[in-house]
Amino acid sequence: xxxxxVPTREQxxxxxxxxxxxxxxxxxxxxxxxxxxxxxxxxxxxAGVFRLRVPKRYGGYESDTRTLVDxxxxxxxxxxxxxxxxxxxWIPGWMAGLFPDHVQDxxxxxxxxxxxxxxxxxxxxxxxxxxxxxxxxxxxxxxxLHAHWQIIVAIQPxxxxxxxxxxxxxxxxxxxxxxxWHTSGLKATGSVTTVAQNLFVPADxxxxxxxxxxxxxxxxxxxxxxxxxRAPLLPVASxxxxxxxxxxxxxxxxxxxxxxxxxxxxxxxxxSQAEAPLxxxxxxxxxxxxxxxxxxxxxxxxxxxxxxxxxxxxxLPERVRARADLGAVCRLAxxxxxxxxxxxxxxxIYSDVPLQRIARDVQAVxxxxxxxxxxxNELYGRVxxxxxxxxxxx
Length: 394
Description:
There is one protein chain. By secondary structure, the protein is of the alpha+beta class. The chain is built from twelve helices and eight strands. Strands 1, 2, 3, 4, 5, 6, 7 and 8 form an eight-stranded mixed sheet that branches. The longest helix is centred in the C-terminal third of the chain and has 34 residues, at 277-310. It is globular, with a radius of gyration of 21 Å.
């Protein structure tokens, strides 16, 4: 068993804060090449970013989700795509801790291991001796180009005619990578498609997805009593994702105010944009929306961390509120960024001005199926009205 000194939340945030200039310096290259720069990946590893959800017995930190929020928000000050990839690794990395302990030994003995994945079924799983054979493809696999393992989800037919979604843990080298990530936002995430062709997956690397979604269905004995793995999957995934979005809103504000002293409002007699009452209203509204996004992000993390610490069961309203908080962060952050970009004027569309990249990135996040504000609001309101959720993903 490895032992390691676990840094505090403040220490981890300070570590990534020191990386901001380096990450900013690679942001343009990363967009052009549609992947995170190797030096940025190595810097994040050195800072311990990939250890946050690794069990302590493997040298990890077992950090709470509030730490994930604050660390991701700080990374996003430099580059949204880099923060998004780090956040994505935390979710399937956490999921890997649900597999049998000897499977975790395969995964977590790799230093700074990176696990990518998806919750969306993209293939079919056929039972065979000792496991399953999978065929299919999975799109939007952020961070696949730097990952060691991937969580895949496939549909397995059952003898009674029903079908069971299963999640499987496979080495990334067992999958074919299709370089099809040509997008308007989050361009540097390298969210390519991965493909399985007659891929055998041993039974010990396969778990039923519905049980995992509900919580408490893992096969790990070592993690059975760990607060890290007490929460259901979707609240954990929600809390792991919001920091990057909050950080984009903060980054937009920082970029706007850094340009403000040298700006005027063209075709007016304002020698400085900072003197205009319109600007005062704009920045106040954007700052308040960012504050509101921070409230929802921290409330979500507090819910996940609080219930994980006590082991109390999750109610259905708490589960759907977790997704509602996630959607609220996305909506409010996008609204804040939109205001800053509008106030930023025509010069903000130049490619060397980060504000245009931030706007495209936050737009892309808001279109994500699990983060879409409208989808999450509908789910929350549906349950508040006394109806059952119409999705497995709560």
